[in-house]
Every structure is written in structure tokens, then in C-alpha cells.
Write a structure and sequence with these properties.
By secondary structure, the chain is of the alpha+beta class. The protein has a domain of 133 residues. The chain is built from seven helices and nine strands; from the N terminus they run ββαααβαβαβββββαα. Helix 3 runs parallel beside helix 4.
């Protein structure tokens, strides 16, 4: 008799080659509660840690880096990954517990594009950085990272395209920190596979 295997995959890919390295079938809220790390870390952080463990079963990649999209991003995930020796840069949207989201949004709301604020903190004995990056007049992106994950100095700019009143396309370079430049350099690896 057929039965439902799961609802979706969560996956991890190599930033250099784009190859998928591990897939985890998500079996819904109830089905995932018994999975490794879930009881102590919660479903999202547990999934992130399990994917990294699957890729690095032999611990040969101590200090490996990880860039994750907003579904995975939280202070809790950054701390769990750091405790396992990983360098992590995580975009934060919904998992903003313990994160200074309101401070960043309030402080940067009237800032021009290309402004960022970096805060440092220690949570559960793990040094972290929080970044609020205002890349346009309307949007602030939020990130949490392990302190060793990259530089917050000026990096490669974001090329913002816009059309003028006559239909001509222009490019405006918007400065951003190096850690975010590197994040976006590889952030669409999973999206490419998902779109296929």
C-alpha cells in the first residue's frame, strides 16, 4: 500500500562545484520530531546540523564554511554550528529570536543603500556577529555569523540595475561588506537545483 514519504527535501550543495552533497527528506512536523538533535535544538537547527554531519561524516573538513538561506538562519543555528567547528553565515528572516532585528530595522530605516551595521555578541560562549545591511532605500537584510566566518570590511559591490524614464538600463554599484559579497556569490546554488 502506498504511503507519503515526506513533504519536501532540504539539501546542501558545494559552493565551488554546485553539486548537491546531501538531501534530507522532510516528513512533516510530527515525523521530524524524533530525528537526531531535534529535542535539544528544534527542527530547523537540527536539520541544518544533520546536513553538515552528513557531508562531513569523517570530520575531515574541520572549520568548513556554510552559507545558508533564511529558512535555516538563526542565532541558535549559528551557535550549534560553531560548537561543531563550522564557520557559518546565515541570513535571518523568521528565526529572529535572540537577534536584534528591531534595532537594525529602526536604525537603518532612513539610511541610503550601501550602509551596514555590525554588532558583536557572545551567546552560549560562542562569539557571533550580527549584520544589518541596508542595500536599497526600502530593504534591510539581516545576517548572523560566527565571528571567524569572514570580514565585515568593504567587499565587492552589489550591481543594482534600474531603468530610467527612457527605458535605458543602468547599473549602480552598492557597497556591501565582504562577508555578504561572498554569501551572495554562492547563495543561489540550491535555488538552481530546485528550479531544475
Amino acid at each position: 500500500m502506498p504511503y507519503i514519504l515526506g513533504t519536501e527535501f532540504k539539501n546542501i550543495a558545494c559552493c565551488a562545484t554546485g553539486c548537491l552533497l546531501a538531501l534530507e527528506l522532510q516528513r512533516g512536523k510530527e515525523g521530524m520530531q524524533s530525528q537526531r538533535h531535534c529535542a535539544e535544538l528544534g527542527a530547523t537547527t537540527a536539520c541544518t546540523l544533520r546536513l553538515m554531519e552528513e557531508v562531513h561524516k569523517d570530520n575531515s573538513q574541520a572549520g568548513a564554511g556554510l552559507r545558508v538561506d533564511a529558512w535555516f538562519g538563526s542565532v541558535k543555528a549559528a551557535v550549534a554550528l560553531a560548537k561543531e567547528g563550522y564557520k557559518a553565515v546565515l541570513q535571518v528572516k523568521t528565526g529572529h529570536g535572540l537577534f536584534p532585528k528591531k534595532f537594525f530595522e529602526d536604525t537603518l530605516k532612513d539610511a541610503p543603500g550601501g550602509v551596514w551595521i555590525v554588532l558583536e555578541a557572545i551567546h552560549d560562549n560562542v562569539p557571533l556577529i550580527a549584520i544589518g545591511y541596508h542595500y536599497s532605500t526600502r530593504m534591510t537584510l539581516l545576517f548572523v555569523a560566527t565571528k571567524n566566518a569572514g570580514s565585515t570590511k568593504k567587499g565587492n559591490p552589489y550591481n543594482m540595475k534600474y531603468t530610467d524614464d527612457w527605458g535605458n538600463v543602468h547599473v549602480c554599484e552598492v557597497v556591501r561588506p565582504d562577508i555578504i559579497s561572498n554569501f551572495f556569490k554562492h547563495s543561489n546554488m540550491i535555488d538552481k537545483h530546485n528550479q531544475l
